[in-house]
Amino acid sequence: METYKLVVNGHPMEVATDPGTPLLWVLREELKMTGTKYGCGIAACGACTVHLAGVPTRSCVVPISLVGRRPVVTIEAMTGDPVGRVVQDAWVSHDVVQCGYCQSGQIMSAVALLKAIPKPTDADIEQSMGGNLCRCATYVRIREAIQIASGQLK
Amino acid sequence: MRRNLQDGADPGWNRRAFLKVSAAATGGLLVSLYLDRLALAQEAASAAAPKVYPPDAFVHIRPDGTTVIQVNRLEFGQGIHTALPMILADEMDADWSHVVAELAPADAVYADPVFGIQMVGQSSSITDSFTQYRELGARTRAMLVAAAAARWKIPEGDCRTESGVVHGPNGRSATYAELAEAAALIPVPEKIRLKSPSAFRLVGTKTRRLDSRPKCDGSLKFGLDLDVPGMKIAVVAHPPVFGARVKGFDAAAARAIEAVRDVFEIPLARGTGVAVVADRFWPAKQGRDRLRIEWDLAGTERPDSGRLFAAYRDLARTTGNIAVARGEANAMHAIPESRRIVAEYEFPFLAHTPMEPLNTTIRLDGDRAEVWAGSQFQTSDQLAIAEVLGLKPAQVAFHTEMAGGGFGRRAVPDSHIQREAAAIAKRLRGVPVKLIWTREDDVQGGYYRPMHVHRVEVGVGSDGLPTAWRHVIVGQSLVAGTPFAPMLIKNGVDSTAVEGAADTHYAIPNFHLSAHHPASSVPVLWFRSVGHTHNTFVMETLVDELAMRAAIDPIAYRLKLLKPDAKRVRSTLTLLQEKAGWRRSVPREHAVGIACVQCFGTAVACAAEVSVEEKRPRIHRVTVALNCGLAVNPLTIESQFQGGVGFGVTQLMSKGAITLKDGRVEQRNFDGYCPPYMKDAPAAVDVHIVPSDDKPTGCGEPPVPVIAPAVVNALFRLTGKRYRTLPLAAL
Amino acid sequence: MAKTQGTTKSTVTITLWGLAVLALLLACSSRTASAQAASPERSSRIDSRTARVEGLAAWDQIYSVLTHPRCINCHTATNYPQQGDDRHRHVANVVRGAEGKGVAALQCVSCHQEANADTTGVPGANGWHLAPLSMSWQDGNDRILPSAEVCRAVTDRSKNHDLDGPGLLKHHTEEPLVLWAFQPGRGIDSNRRTLPPLTHDAFVAATRRWVDAGMPCPPIK
User: Fold this and answer.
1) Which CA distances in Å does B273 have to B240, B263, B306, B420, B423?
2) Could you tell me which of A105, A111, A89 has the C-alpha nearest to residue A138?
3) Which residues pair with B246 in a beta bridge?
4) Which of B288, B444, B671, B677 is the mutation pick for testing C, counting most C CBs within 10 A?
5) B582 contacts chain C (CB < 8 A)
6) Do residues C27 and C11 touch, judged by C-beta distance below 8 A?
7) What is the maximum span of chain B, computed from C-alpha positions, in angstroms?
8) How many Å apart are CA C151 and CA C215, to the nearest integer?
9) Residue A69: burial class (beta carbons within 10 Å; 0-12, 13-18, 19+)
10) Which residues of A touch B374 (CB under 8 A)?
11) Contact B404, B246 (CB under 8 A)
12) E strand or H helix at B278, and its extent?
């Protein structure tokens, strides 16, 4: 057991846990922030995507001991994020979700994409979103919603 | 959308009256043997009616005008959480902007009117509950009107309703919220009048889902997200070979982890396993990883995919139990070999892998239990948990949680997950426990779409149409040994294994279909569109081959071959012809494939534009035409079809197979069993609905079967090869 | 040197001179490769042949490391990295990206941190990324290139980021991703990843011998 100081969505937090515990489970169980999802545990699906110092990161494979001082941003902060909000609104207006379980990760990836490339091409979208698994296969509407969001970004 | 059990008690509706009213079966099939067992439980449940979980009625109007509508089955993405309330709210003339939907807990009142149990499957939600929910809405409206009329002392006929308000003459009005209490005292009317479809305000319109926002901001809690005070987490070490038992285990290393609380053997649906209970998921998983278990494999079958396929191929060369024997049994003899097609198909085990790993949370408290689960089969799951805990079902409060995908995986006749969780909860007595299946548990834990081999011989007439068809299907029965068996197995044929072939919409004379159902220790389960997953693939690739031989356009050929009464399929093929004109002018290196199906009442036809990229099919565009009768929510339908054809690509993925070697599943996670990602699914899907006022049928499963055959039909035009073994190897 | 009388004495003198010259030449040829004598003397040919043989032997050892999965999985000619001893395509459709670091929302560092994550099975080191395409030791069909081709790729300064012998030696000695290959951590099955056939020290030593020998490459067959 060790104590770790984190900054999550701008708030300083302290957790006591095993060094090898993935950030995902620290968020979900120590901090009770369940917006970030467990889908596979081997970084193959992207449901666990957070932003770590601005880098979209698969939190299921990052042990808490390797997070360091890098700020953590999760889906819960997207409503208050200018790009996050536009993406969420596009997702809602375009009726993207079905079961919704993968969508936290999809949105976190889409936000990272749009922050880096505000006007992505179809190829940009497919490459950046290409590692996020959706069993309901909402991919067609995800593509469209990203273009909608892109059109609404200043 | 979680119900808060603490808030406002009984809304005042007469639950028993609703019981009578809403349970009026529309006839149809009843799973009788199943019901015998369950009916007793249900009666006991309604008789005991403990305070811990009094089930709500279907509608609750809060003082602030919020209209809460109970959805009588699980929402796992298919959109009924929105569509069913739309139906009720429309007849009720509720204010849609104030409607909130909740997933109803397990209760007899929420049983599917046709199946008689609370369930979701076979794309039957709208089919079975359309009239039910209309009537509920109409009755609610009638009672509100009666209350207003009584208050104003005017005839009910002088009132009209609109958007949550009753209007009387001379400008009088009262909101539903104002009238709710008085309306609760009105006796539930037996006879009501439903709207004429032209009066629908919601039904038939593109209506956005009610559950989108919370699914986009991380606030919606799936079963896996629930946190019950004092909760522990359990994971179970399952046998590496189905049916094996624990011979002995060493838990010292596991117990050495501080947060691990208990390690013990539990019975499973097949064999036994070892449960690890910890304060948190990670130590539970670490604990399980450190267990040293000796397994007793004596008497286990040790199924092996290679050996099974060889055995199935042998069986496929013999006649099985007859499903269909139409026309002349020997018709094939009259057809020269040069006019016969012989085709063998092989399909592997498939895992559903819904995005949310399986989980159940249970707390046993003396003579009461509380369950939180995303279950497609609440009635039987509740019954199973009660059995394990030694309680009556009425003593088990069962909350239905939003689920991250189902596809059939959460509708399990043996309730194996619930039984596992209950066995652990029983031991923990008083401490709530959440059982989590990791993704590895899910991929390796069985309950797969069975593997199949087909052998088909087709005799072709001089007009290019089939004149004889001899078809043998080999595959495990889904329902043998379950309460569904008596209803679904006839003459030794499991109807779920032959649907899509036995009931073909093509007019094929001299049609002979038989099936073998070898037994195996591999647990099997219905997988989104069930028998259509393989039968439609066979039918639609063979029909394509026939069309090519006859040099007739594949849509025209199908139209020609259709039975005269296959109206829905005909309408979709006709609409597809109209909407897929682009198929005549695709780029070089692209080709188009066609396929159609009638699945659980809904007809679908599609055209897929395909090219080969990096040795895989790249699907550029799919045009879909469908006929589901009345389209309740065209927006949901569009999504279901866009997603469903993407889901259907599961069968084509290069790592789209579960295989066993000497009893062990060879895949463990998405690295070895790989469902479609964005680039594997069609890049664009346009959906067209045949306008209709017919009784609505479902849209969850119908999209799935058409895409795989359409794609390989296109591939044939690119490579000259027919692909009859799935998954697709490198092209 | 005093002249001596008679033929025998002159022969001895000349032989003594010859030996002295030979000794001198041997002394010269033992210096670094760039100082190799250009003399076509039979003695220097024997030296350079030995050096070449030793250098090629050292290259063989280097090649065995470079083509081990721990190294070659990122020295690909394709749009994607590989994983595992069977060198299968990396999960989650990760792609190279313009700089070998992945793409905007799916970067190498989206998963790979600064150190191995043994509890989750993800390897890590400072600056995880793909080797540039010019430094690929496989062909576009994931087939490992023969020794002669890899050697030429490694020594081609127009392709190897302008690394000379000392530069290559430094790369092998200090580069974090190279060092990682010798301490690759555990996979998701908790087993240690297999190691290259040499230790890091032996790899560096072999590199030094090869560089000293003039970085000879085997002939192309």
Assistant:
1) 10, 11, 27, 9, 11
2) A105
3) B295
4) B671
5) no
6) no
7) 84
8) 9
9) exposed
10) none
11) no
12) strand B272-278
ipTM for the whole complex: 0.98
Nearest to C93 among B289, B669, B679 (CB): B679
Helix (H) or strand (E) holding B688: strand B684-689
SS3 B656: coil
Judged by phi (left if over 0) then psi (alpha if -120 to 50, else beta), residue A54 lies in: left
Question: What would the pLDDT profile of B82-116 be if each residue is shown by its tens digit?
Answer: 999 999 999 999 999 999 999 999 998 898 888 88
Q: Are C106 and A127 an interchain contact pair (Cβ–Cβ within 8 Å)?
A: yes
Residue B717: burial class (beta carbons within 10 Å; 0-12, 13-18, 19+): middle
Q: Mark yes or no for CB contact A95/B682 under 8 Å.
A: no
Question: How big is chain A, counted in residues?
Answer: 154
Q: Please give the full DSSP string across chain A, using - where no structure is assigned.
A: -EEEEEEETTEEEEEEE-TTSBHHHIIIIIS--TTS--S-SSSSS-TTEEEETTEEEEGGG-BGGGTTT--EE-GGGGGGSHHHHHHHHHHHHTT--SS-TTHHHHHHHHHHHHHH-SS--HHHHHHHHTT---TT-THHHHHHHHHHHHHH--
pLDDT digits (tens, 9 = 90+) for A22-75: 999 999 999 999 999 999 999 999 999 999 999 999 999 999 999 999 999 999
At B359-416, the pLDDT tens digits run: 999 999 999 999 999 999 999 999 999 999 999 999 999 999 999 999 999 999 999 9
- The pLDDT of B342-367, averaged and rounded, is 97
Cα separation of B495 and A21, whole Å?
A: 48
Note the pTM of the prediction, 2 decimals.
0.91
> Sheet holding B466-475: strands in order across?
B321-326, B511-516, B466-475, B452-460, B340-347
CB hemisphere CA count around B468 (13 angstroms): 17
- A33 to chain B: closest CA residue: B218
Cβ within 8 Å of B, A 100-129: 100-104, 107, 122, 126, 129
- CA distance linking residue B710 with residue B289, whole number of Å: 44
B627 φ, ψ to 5°? -135, 105
pLDDT at residue C23, rounded to an integer: 56
Q: Which residue of C has its CA nearest to B283?
A: C119
The pair of three-digit structure tokens given for residue A72, joined into one six-digit string: 């953590």
At B5 the pLDDT is 31
Tell me: the pLDDT tens digits for C142-182? Answer: 999 999 999 999 999 998 889 999 999 999 999 999 999 99
**A11-17 and A2-8: which strand pairing?**
antiparallel
Residue labelled with tokens 């072999």: C206
Measured distance CA(A24)–CA(A4) in Å, rounded: 14
Amino acid of residue C203:
F
Domains (ranges, CATH) in chain B?
15-213 (3.30.365.10), 223-299+358-436 (3.30.365.10), 317-350+448-719 (3.30.365.10)
Distance of CA B189 to the CA centre of its chain: 34
CA nearest to C88 within chain B: B671
DSSP 8-state symbol, B448: B
Neighbours of B551 (CB within 10 A): 8
Q: For B677, which of C93, C188, C190 is closest by C-beta distance?
A: C93
Q: Which residues of C touch B679 (CB under 8 A)?
A: 93
Both tokens of C134, joined, read: 């010019």
Distance from CA of A62 to the nearest CA of C (A): 7
* Alpha carbon distance, N-terminus to C-terminus of chain A: 46
pLDDT at C46 > cutoff 60: no
Q: Which domains does chain A have, with CATH numbers?
A: 2-74 (3.10.20.30), 77-152 (1.10.150.120)
The number of beta carbons lying within 10 Å of the beta carbon of residue B306 is 11
